[in-house]
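Reply to dn_fold:

You asked what the input looked like. This is it:
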Amino acid sequence: MNLDQSPLLVFYETTRACPLACRHCRAEAMPDPLPGQLTTDQSKLFFEDLLRFGQRPPILILTGGDPLMRADIFELCAYASSIGITVALSPSVTPSLTTANVRRLKDVGVSSMSISLDGANAPTHENIRGVPGHFAQTVDAVLMLVDEGITVQINTTVMEINADELDTVAALIKELKAAIWEVFFLIGVGRGKGLSALDAAGNEDVCHFLYDASRYGFTVRTVEAPFFRRVASERRRGRPAPCGPLYRRLSHGLRERLGEPREAPRAGTAGTRDGKGIVFVSHAGDIYPAGFLPVSAGKVPTDSIVDVYRDHAVFASLRGGDFGGRCGRCDYREMCGGSRARAFSVAGDPLAEDPGCIYVPLVEDVVGAG
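and this is what came back:
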């Protein structure tokens, strides 16, 4: 796809209502919907506008909060599916995530869902999620979804308090038969401002570990770590893994639990980044380059998401790759481009250098850029 003309993924924050109060919640979700939430009719107009992207409209991912907190969620899924849009759902693990509701969602066109698992055990996961018993409920939810024929993606946010457990999380994902592991690298927005992200060296170690994990039968993707694509490219070309302490621990633990890898790597390397292949619509209709980059460029349904994505200066600059610092002179600029959300969170400039990446551009590239 031409990512200047159409995104691959459109995320719609259907509501900020959610029974959970997770410590890293981007949306700072709360028990009740906020005023200004898009109505059913406004949501449908927004869905219709997605068809203007072309014959292959982007995948629509309904997030929250908890989308199951919307009384019209089944109607919204059914409508989007009926007009030819592929719909995925990102529900919270709550009493609303029942077998009956999952079957209703399947009936209206939802075939894939993502579930958050932020630790390898109850103490870690429940410390982050804030609900006693939630770890076991999450495992049961994944098993139920797999049994119902849903393609399951596990979302894990990596940060200082859970990084050492990633090998055990990977083994659990394998056991649960999830199809995809999407690892979010913490960005200091929402309630996540109170947590500590890994430093650049830790991020590099985790990316190399994730490449190893992708050889155990499930796809691995990252969010706000586009430098994972550089790591995957380098490893495919034969570059050895690093010898950092975090990588050594995770790599050893992974092999101890799952044995030596025997499959080809399944490391997601689509060249998207915030505002390039990705667009986010808030519960109130604000159009952002990504959920972790809350720079509004318009508002649906008043503004066309197609026009905003293609023509707004914010999106054009993010796709243009005119970045500052190392990102601007990097030989992996097109493949990666750095996390624009992290740059904004740290420097207040979405075009600044990504401080979460350890890579130093090649000398000849630096000279050529001068």
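Residues 134-147 form the longest helix (14 residues).
Hope that clears it up.
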